[in-house]
Amino acid sequence: MSTTKKFAGALLATALGVTTLSACGGDAKDKAAGASDAPKSKTVTLVSHDSFAVSEPVLKEFEQQSGYTVKVLKSGDAGAALNQEILTKGSPRGDVFFGVDNTLLSRALDNGIFTPYEAKGLGDVKPEYVLDRQHRVTPVDSGDICVNYDKQYFADKKLAPPQTLDDLIKPEYKNLLVTENAATSSPGLGFLLASVGKYGDEGWKDYWSKLKANGVEVVDGWEQAYNERFSGSAGGKKAKGDRPLVVSYASSPPAEVLYADPQPAEAPTGVATGTCFRQIEFAGLLKGAKNEAGGKALLDFLVSKKFQEDMPLQMFVDPVVKDAKLPEVFTKHGVVIDKPENVAPDVIAKNREQWVKAWSSLVVK
Predict the structure, then answer these.
(1) What is residue 177's three-state secondary structure?
(2) What is the reported pLDDT for 94?
(3) Which has the closest alpha carbon to 81: 320, 251, 281?
(4) Which of these, 148, 166, 296, 356, is most buried using a 10 Å CB contact count?
(5) CA torsion angle for 204, 77, 225, 279 (degrees, to 10)?
(6) Which of 117, 122, 113 is nearest to 94 (CA)?
């Protein structure tokens, strides 16, 4: 999502060896075939944040069926990647951009970097995810930023884990929560937006004053919060983290199971389902794309059932297509967030900077 440290980014980069897929192969094929002089390029370039991933067999199947070779150009976190596309508007570095989410969507649309295209298969996408009726962007995935808890800690203390934002300011949870800086971290920003969605523009500051008084700890990013300070994660245990509550993702418990050796029968962490903010991530055909036909084919692929069902174990996000099945580790160890907090993209765009500035003054300084 619009993350500086998406959950999958930290785990998959080492566990699966994710790289820029077909980047070298595509260039080599083009040069060998004299593609620079050809009227139609056989390489389609996807510009993305660092956390994009797809399994090699699924990508190869698309390449074989479409005749295009996919080159993935990774450009840091989502905000930085989007900034580069805005700066190169009209002369983009690729054909499709993936990774703009609902916290940055209005900024991307207002800058006019996308060409409208209604992807084949868009009718199978859940309608609540189709936020742009002009089809300048196509929904690809969703995920929920939520407070996670260390099950063992709360069992040992005979204390019920918190379930809502209101719970987190109660005395029994004093000095237990660690969150990321909203100015530097996507999960941190999402958690701030959850409080805005819950308490409104007038009430969120009062909530954070109470949360600060209740001992919330703020660190720069997800990696430090989850893998160093949180007592419930594998990394946090090794680092002797002492905070049993952390802002992470609803998909974190399945990941803890999947990457454990041996895999436990039950996830060691849980999700406070009343603390969540939903992110929706989009892709769009870049205005001025050199390979517009290839870009359209790639967008069709991103909402195909094949890609959507491959995606959860690659990026630890949820599909947006109605009939896409989740892997067993998600259905067994994950949770469904029925009522996440939401803030409209245009409201976020209008207020994000001042909200983050006010939050920083209130909580960090």
Answers:
(1) strand
(2) 96
(3) 281
(4) 148
(5) 50
(6) 113
| Sign of the C-alpha dihedral computed for residues 239, 245, 249 and 250 taken in this order | positive
pLDDT in tens, 235-246: 999 999 999 999
Residue 152: its H or E element: helix 151-156
What percentage of the chain has pLDDT greater than the value 70? 89
pLDDT at 268: 97
Chain segment 282-336, per-residue pLDDT in tens? 999 999 999 999 999 999 999 999 999 999 999 999 999 999 999 999 999 999 9
Res 57: pLDDT: 97
Residue 164: Cβ within 10 Å count: 14
d(CA 271, CA 291): 43
The residues, ordered by sequence, that sit 6+ positions from 10 with a Cβ below 8 Å of its Cβ are 222, 223, 226, 227
List the one residue out of 55, 71, 139 whose CA is nearest residue 100.
Answer: 139
For residue 66, CA distances in Å to 136, 199, 270, 296 come to 22, 48, 41, 11
Separation between Cα atoms, residue 71 and residue 46, nearest integer Å: 6
Helix (H/G/I), strand (E/B), else coil: 199: helix
Other beta carbons within 10 angstroms of residue 36's beta carbon come to 8
Name the DSSP letter for residue 89.
T
pLDDT of residue 104: 87
Helix-helix angle 345-359:186-213, to 10 degrees: 50
Phi, psi of 255 (to 5 degrees): -65, -40
Q: What is the dihedral of CA 78, 333, 124, 193, to 10 degrees?
A: -40
What 3-state class would DSSP assign to 161?
A: coil
**Higher confidence at residue 187 or residue 177?**
177
The whole-angstrom separation of Cα 146 and Cα 186 is: 12
Q: Rounded to whole angstroms, how far apart are CA atoms 143 and 280?
A: 7
Tokens of 142: 């969703």
Q: Residue 125 pLDDT more than 70?
A: yes
